[in-house]
Write a structure and sequence with these properties.
The structure holds 2 protein chains of 2 kinds.
Chain A lengths: L1 H23 L3 H21 L3 H26 L6 H4 L6 H25 L6 H6 L4 H9 L4 H22 L11 H5 L3 H4 L16
Helix pairs in contact in A: 1-2, 2-3
Chain B lengths: L1 H39 L15 H10 L11 H17 L18 H11 L1 H10 L3 H32 L4 H6 L11 H14 L11 H4 L9 H25 L11 H4 L3 H22 L5 H29 L9
Helix pairs in contact in B: 1-10, 1-12, 2-10, 3-5, 3-10, 5-6, 6-8, 6-13, 8-10, 10-12
The chains are: A mainly alpha, B mainly alpha.
Chain lengths: 208, 335
């Protein structure tokens, strides 16, 4: 048990330290790297509490896909140059917005944790560990029976968000040369190569 | 506390006995790769150092150790040094869950296949970090290409894994192997095996999908600025990843450590030998494909991933699920 708590404090200290570094580090790239470290250590905490499926999904989805996109955006946009004007200067509107968002998140957390403490028969991590069924099966049993509607709704919301994002950034570009794969594959010597007798001083005119 | 230290000592001992064979195998596999490549092109390949040139990779490694490590002046030094370490570590860490036989596995965890998938999706970081930290055009372009490619092909690999999981009903790698006792999944899921194999070529940046290090366009891609031991670590990590994908393919489709048939002369061969033979078989396919297929164009690569593999594996997923449901063959969960 001592070892368990040593590991718990190890991972949670890393998580807290890296989440602090995300918001305080000067360069944006370092912020993203610390965010990744944060995700990984939170994933380790999930695994320690017995929620191995959630921990792995956190690693796959957030670290493997979402953070890669963050890294892409940060590297491409070169946001690092703007770091001076973010919090200092007259036009800084980030602190009030950030405050509002963080207060909202704190309230949500209070509601959730309060509700969980109030209603004790909600499944806690202790019951997860005690039961014989594996974590993944338990999640599936709940998600595809009692909460199937919410599960499907979440999928639809994500699909709509995806379509919306594509629609917002879609622009039809004219004058772009594109390869037609069908034409490329169905090309053969008989319609691609022609032997032409060229007369002197007249040149040749090819139509294609 | 003493008991804990004892357990720790045993684990370290096990880990060393896992890592050393893997590193030696990686060295041998590089030799095999070059040898096959040479034979296909009617050359001899490395055949000078040691018997059949077997020590060629060791000689190369020795050469890399004694070379100077050059760090570009404008590079981000921490990230630059971290990148090959990340690649190498992730490539080796994933081997913890690969079962070589029913008992011969370091960590037999419930979510083994998810762990493998998570680790292989983390592999992209080594490449992005290396490309970005070099602060040079070619590595950066190579890194971006590679990241986009790996993220794209992971999607179809994920759906293929779900296909297999539907038939097994468990995320444990040992269960996946045991479920194939009657029939290897390569037979009912043959199209998925082909797509998995091609996707793993793309996932490990192997030819014909080696766009990130296309010599003609990008010098050497993300590893252009690396030298000495750091380059060797990228290189070893890459081959360890290839071996890992071969191991994953043999577990998911070729029945892992199960013998070819459960009849007398075949089933006395120990299980790890079967696993190694299957990994080697898949690796030989990898090596042959490197030699005989020309490189893809980048738009063709993306089209193949998103417009062909993804819809096809999704349709096959629906087909598999309907088949299992209709014929009442869904795996029974022991609750």
């Amino acid at each position: 048990m001592i070892v368990h708590s040593i590991f718990f404090y190890f991972f949670s200290l890393i998580a807290i330290f890296s989440s602090l570094m995300v918001i305080t580090s000067r360069s944006t790239i370092n912020s993203v790297f610390f965010l990744i470290l944060d995700f990984i250590s939170v994933g380790c905490l999930f695994i320690m509490v017995g929620a191995e499926f959630l921990g792995m999904i956190l690693l796959i989805v957030y670290v493997g896909a979402v953070a890669v996109l963050f890294l892409f955006v940060v590297m491409m946009l070169n946001v690092a140059e703007q770091k001076q004007s973010w919090f200092i200067g007259k036009k800084s509107t980030h602190i009030p917005t950030g405050l509002i968002v963080s207060v909202l998140i704190l309230l949500e957390l209070l509601v959730v944790v309060g509700g969980w403490k109030y209603k004790e028969d909600i499944m806690s991590s202790g019951t997860l560990l005690l039961s014989e069924i594996s974590n993944t099966h338990q999640l599936g049993l709940v998600m595809y029976t009692d909460y199937i509607l919410y599960f499907q709704l979440a999928g639809i919301v994500l699909l709509l968000a995806m379509i919306g994002a594509i629609l917002l950034t879609f622009r039809e570009r004219v004058g772009v040369k594109k390869q037609s794969y069908l034409n490329q594959i169905s090309r053969n010597p008989s319609n691609a190569v022609a032997l032409i007798e060229v007369k002197s001083n007249q040149g040749v005119k090819l139509d294609d | 506390m003493i008991g804990y230290l004892e357990i720790l000592g045993q684990e370290v001992y096990k880990i060393i006995f896992l890592l050393v064979p893997i590193l030696v195998t990686v060295a041998m596999i590089v030799w095999l790769d070059r040898r096959v490549w040479g034979l296909v092109q009617k050359r001899k390949g490395p055949n000078v150092v040691g018997p059949f040139g077997l020590f060629q990779t060791l000689a190369d490694a020795l050469k890399y150790i004694f070379k100077e490590i050059i760090i570009p002046a404008s590079a981000n030094k921490v990230v630059f040094i971290l990148a090959p370490i990340v690649t190498m570590t992730l490539a080796l860490v994933a081997w913890a869950v690969i079962p070589m036989s029913e008992d011969l596995v370091l960590a037999n965890i419930n979510v083994g296949i998810l762990y493998l998938f998570a680790i292989s999706s983390l592999g992209v970081y080594g490449i992005i970090m290396g490309g970005w930290a070099s602060n040079s055009k070619y590595p950066f372009l190579g890194a971006i290409r590679s990241a986009a490619q790996m993220v794209s092909y992971e999607v179809s690999i994920g759906i293929i894994i779900i296909n297999v999981l539907l038939c097994v009903g468990s995320l444990n790698l040992n269960d996946i192997v045991i479920a194939q006792k009657e029939l290897w999944y390569v037979i009912p899921l043959f199209p998925m095996f082909v797509i998995f194999f091609i996707s793993s070529l793309a996932e490990t940046n192997r030819p014909p999908f080696d766009l990130p290090e296309a010599e003609a366009e990008l010098v050497a891609g993300y590893q252009t600025e690396y030298s000495g031991m750091m380059y060797a670590m990228f290189w070893l990590g890459e081959y360890a990843n290839i071996l890992l994908m071969c191991a994953m393919g043999s577990i998911l489709f070729l029945g892992g450590w199960l013998p070819l048939m459960d009849i007398y002369p075949l089933n006395i061969i120990p299980a790890p030998i079967w696993m190694i033979l299957k990994i080697l078989f898949l690796f030989l396919l990898f090596a042959l494909i490197k030699a005989i297929v020309p490189r893809y164009r980048y738009d063709q690569l993306m089209r193949l991933g998103w417009k062909i593999f993804l819809p096809f594996s999704l349709i096959y997923l629906v087909l598999t699920a309907s088949f299992l449901f209709y014929f009442d063959k869904l795996p029974k969960v022991n609750i």
